[in-house]
Amino acid sequence: MRHLIILTTLLLTACGSPPPPAPPPPAPAPKLVIQLGAVDAAMGLRSLDIQLTNQGTAPAQINGYADIRILDHNRQPIDAHIGHGTAGVATVEGFDAPPQPITLEPGHTVHAGLLWRNLVTQTDRKATQGAYLDIAPAPGQAFQTVEPDGGIDLGNTTTLGLSAWKTITP
């Protein structure tokens, strides 16, 4: 009988405790969307404005460089070197500025620049033409595939420079 009373007391105690509180809902993830400006082509030097807009409801922390892959017409990667800053492609004011932490508020946009030359300097090597770009806001984040107007005509140098994300004030 004594065992029955102890067992009943234990069961009632276990059943009577309140459930643990529910965990708080996760913070809304920022929705970062990549868009491209027009390719500016002057005397063999090409530049492309890459825009990253926060279309979510929460701020996003941005610092550093985008992660970029150049793809051909079949969406296969092209072997190219994308360096931080001008990467020796040309001298462009402000392009080599180091990354700065940016809080990207909902509805706001940051920019990065991609720079290359359409040069054919090696007669034994075919010129390279990219059709698409895979761009992630930062290494390790999801890629978004975009199609630059006119493609990426690299010649046979296959070297590009990439600026850090930055805000542009009017």
TrEMBL record:
| Annotated keywords | Signal
Q: Where is the DUF4232 domain?
A: 29-164
Pfam families listed in its UniProt record: DUF4232
* Keyword match Signal: yes
The residue range of the signal peptide is: 1-22
Entry's InterPro entries?
DUF4232
Coiled-coil segments: none
Top-level lineage group:
Bacteria
Q: PROSITE patterns, from UniProt?
A: PROKAR_LIPOPROTEIN
Its name, as the record gives it, is DUF4232 domain-containing protein
What's the source species for this entry?
Kibdelosporangium persicum
Q: What is the lineage of its organism?
A: Bacteria, Bacillati, Actinomycetota, Actinomycetes, Pseudonocardiales
